[in-house]
Amino acid sequence: MFKKSVTKILLLVLLVALVAGCTAQGNGDDEGAGDAGGTKYISIATGGTAGTYYPLGSALSQIFNDNIDGVTANVESTGASVENIELIAKGDADIAFIQNDITYYAAEGIEVFEGKDKVENLRGLAMVYPELVQIVATKDSGIESVEDLKGKKVAIGAPGSGTEANARQILAIHGLDYDDLGKADFLSFDEAAAQLQDKQIDAAFITAGIPTAAITEVSQNTDIVVVSVSEDKINEAIEEYPYYIGIEIPKGTYEGQEADISTIAVMAMLVVPEDLDEDLAYNMTKTIFEQRDDIIATHERGKDIQLETALTGMPIEVHPGAMKYYEEQGISQ
Known about the structure:
Blueprint: H1 2-27, E1 40-45, H2 53-67, E2 71-76, H3 81-90, E3 95-99, H4 100-108, E4 122-138, E5 153-155, H5 162-173, E6 183-185, H6 189-197, E7 203-208, H7 213-221, E8 224-227, H8 231-240, E9 245-249, E10 261-273, H9 278-290, H10 292-298, H11 320-328
């Protein structure tokens, strides 16, 4: 009799455990949930650790984790703009830093995306800061102008990166292409910085917010020259590629830089997938602007993140969750 009672109790406990397990598993499929506990995991695609995307992405992960309930955000180092487009398109990232020109190319299926399907699931969250096209050369190279790059060993950015597209376009308006260089090296920011210091290359194109860590490091260890783009070539670039703007790198930005340097810039922006939960997109946008001081504390470019310019130059449709926040704040395209 005792054995039968024990058996019945054990069967009852087993049945309750099975039901509880099934219920928990079913509840784990709620929208926005990343696991059975309802956590939403957010992957933030940035760039190389020596650029500007990565520290800003780290700041975003921190403010999202601290201010959005149920969110665990992680920053990922990537090959930057072009790779980030692919990560968003495939659903492998939830928010990404991307140059506005690259976003436009992807949406239209042109330039580096020519011959590929248009990427139609991209949505804008915010425009964030200008990314300056910086041409840095070793002083020993004798390079003082873009034309002087002819016959030199030049880093032109990681393969398929926004920097690479910028380098190709700037060379083109000066009547040059990669064949005119002594060597066109497809290098990341970190690799370019290391090879400039080791005198393995003569110059590098680096498109990023200023000051850029990779250039700062080089300038502290090697005598460098930051090359200007002439006013007429800046105007020619803007006429040919309307997403560019003329801008200056203020003197003193880098060690040994004694004058303002004229160049062109694109805009860095935050891109999310079309199917990102609307409430989450709203909360992410709200947190970025309400916790802006924390971003500024991480990197100087946080100062450029301003509500008033969040939609200026937006090349794609804004995510409805983000647009809801902007409309509440009286901001429109």
